[in-house]
Structure formats: structure tokens, C-alpha cells
Write a structure and sequence with these properties.
Length: about 220
Amino acid sequence: MMPTTRALRAGRRTALLLALVLSAPIAAQSVTIEALLPNTVVLKVDGERKTLRVGDNFRGIVLISADSSAAVLEINGERQRLGLNRNVTTNYVAPERRQLDIPRNERMQYITSAEINGRSVRVIVDTGANVVAMNASQATALGIDYRAGVAGNMETASDVVAAWSVNLQSVAVGGIRIENVRASVTEGKFPATILLGMSYLQHVELREADGVLSLSRAW
């Protein structure tokens, strides 16, 4: 018996609905960032490892941007910025934003507490310094074997002194922790206070208003 026109139409509708169900993206339940590269991220999605480049879409996850510190992902239409080994589920939670406000002192300096390699120190926020900078005595007090770094010279206001380029395990200010931060260690007493330079500051947002400098970052 030949199928009727009504039966054929019903069959087509059923096939179409089935095709739509099969082609619909399956929402990921758990997403973890395992590696970060410029414009590239390695994710573990529900236990499956996947490499995405900017613009790639995998199971409802789109990579918007990525650098060595964090990636911006669009997950089921919601955008958020995630750091290395940060896990997110489909129950979207806005990323935490940490902020530290530093008032300017009478010498027009922004001085605050920081942790370098887990040890507490005082630092001056200095956007004119390319890297975190300290003198040899300060480095020794922090347990840094600076002479194992790359040797060179640095020009100060009054002299040219020996200097070493090193990588710090971590620098944290106001709870904003950055790992593997480049630093310079100079022979002598300069700088008297450790300078928090751009090798750290490039990873945070800086805003200055009414004599208060704000450092912030979303996690």
C-alpha cells in the first residue's frame, strides 16, 4: 500500500525534527582552561581535551580572545574571562573582580604592600619601569638567587651598575596574583623601595582618579 500524502508530510516533519535535535549543540557541563597561548587555548570540556583558536566553536563554547594570562570565552551566549586552570560550569557565574585602591602620598607616590615569591614587601607602583625592579639586598632577603640570572648593566640617575634579569615565581598585590614575572636586580642601593613595573602591571587594569590609583582584574 502506497503511503498517503498526510503520512508523507508527517514523516517529513518527524525527520526534520530529528535532524534539528541531532544537529543542535550539546551544552558543556564543565570547562577548564589547561593552557593559554596568544589567540589559542587548550580546554578540557567534560573530560575531553580540545584546542580552540579565536573564532572556533565547540559545543557552544566560542573563543573570543586569548593571551598568556587569560582567555575570553563565550559559553552559551555568556562571555567571561578565565585564567589558567579555572573551571566553569554551565550554571553561569560572573567572574570575580578584585580591586585595590592605593592613595597617593605627599611625595606623589603610590606605595602599597605586595607579596613576591610569597614574602611580604613594600612596593612603589611605577608605570615608567619596564619590569619589577629591586636592589641586590632586597633580592637576597626574598631568597632570590639573582646571580643565576642573565647578567648585564643598568643606567641609574647617577651611575651605570651591574644588573641581573630574573623571573619571579609570583607577584601578588591586593590578592591579584601573577606568576612568572620578569624582574631586574641591581647592584647597590637603587632602588631604595622595590618598583612594581610593567612586567606585573600589564596584567591588570589601571585607573587613576582624585589621587587614588586603582588596580583591578577579573578572574
